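Batch 3, record 17
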Amino acid sequence: MNKAAPGFSDEQLAKARAGDAAALESLIRAHQSSVYSLALRMLGTPELAEDLTQDVFMQLNGNLRTMGSNTHLMFWLRKVTTHRAIDQLRRRSRFEMTSLDEMPLVSIADGGDPLLQRHLQQLLLELSPPARAVLLLRYQEDLDPAEIARTLEMPINTVKSHLKRGLEILRQRISHPESRRCEDKST
Amino acid sequence: MRNYSLGIFLALMAPTLAWAAPSPRLALPDFTALAQQATESVTITLDAALLAMAGRFLNGDDPQDAATKDILKGLQGIYVRSYTFDKDSAYQQSDIDAVRNQLSAPGWNRLVQTRSRKSQANVDIYIMVANNQAIGLALIASEPRQFTIVNIVGAIDLDKLHKLEGQFGVPKLDVDVAKVPTPSIKK
Amino acid sequence: MSEDLESRLHAALTPVAPRPEFTQNLIARVNADKRTEANTRGHRRSPKATAWWLIAGMAASLLTAVGMQHHLQSRRQTESGLEARRQVIEALHITSEKLNLAYEVIKSQSSSPADDRSGV
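Prediction for the assembled complex:
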């Protein structure tokens, strides 16, 4: 089950393709969180994330006729969002670190530690863009390595290396924090 | 008349002289039959032209791409054969021996040989040196369910390969290329 | 520990909704864009104008065909280049993995020399 787009069906997609404004609005509401979150966690600031999200949906608007199914639509959204984010990050002269204060706190329904969650999001920003994209597609979008490879147009072995190496780095940095801003409550 | 005779003599000797010079390019066997049994197989054959093409698509602003581009300078070829199986001993050592035998030819120097009884992983690393510079690298890694052969041809900068650490997780090998004996060419 | 980190990552990376104002603006923009597109498509033409458009269309098609061929060739070259780049990166990944494997065995020698033997 896709946690990113609950309650949006292929029938509604067909209506949106046919020009039904209400269906188009439902499409945006159903998928915007996934796109926005990918953009936010790739680029680091809400402003850049909003710009990218808008660009993606405007581009989708021009390509809606080619979307045969909800599955195809989600694949397209993830692919375009991550590719555009990676391109944007490559154009920057260096990776800009984001202040912890700029990252919105997510209220965790299961009672998880919000500061640790924010710390993890911050640590993700320290990974290279391709590695970051791989981890986001894995742990935010629940894609398996083969799906990630198709989305990012990356060899599957490279995806697996990024996953392995990315988790190692996160584990190391949680165990040995360097920043005084991060209250590390990991075990 | 003497010059004419000398010319014929040199023309006849040229193939012999060429054969005597060690080549860092390995003759890799056809592993098609093994590939069919493997659950995953990687076959990469990149000659100088393809490496040059790849270099044009590496972005100098991205640290990983920039490090990769740097390594590619001076390389004439990268050849990889890697096969993963779903059970132990699906391949024979004799499958790899055709490659290993080439590494006992003059010119190749074994840099590292590791044998692990615990993980049953064996890794042999060889380099070919000329004029105090590594001009070829060969790596054979065999594990119970996987074997990998890597052959890199060209001016390999082991320092740069080491500096990929963090990008690809390459460890420092602590090798002084100047101390590796230069091969003598047999006449 | 590995599962703990992975489950924490899942929890930390629950999708976040953008601001409600952003969503409203986005929907309005997309709808406006859709209306503009529909107006352009729905515009009627007179027969004379239709003939003119037909000729212009044929000329444009010819130019497009030439342009398309060039574009396809360029695209094929780009695809080949990108594929070569992917293979280079994968080859270096595999090389580094195996170098790391050798390194790990050498490193473990110092802790348990009885299990491993390595030579440099």
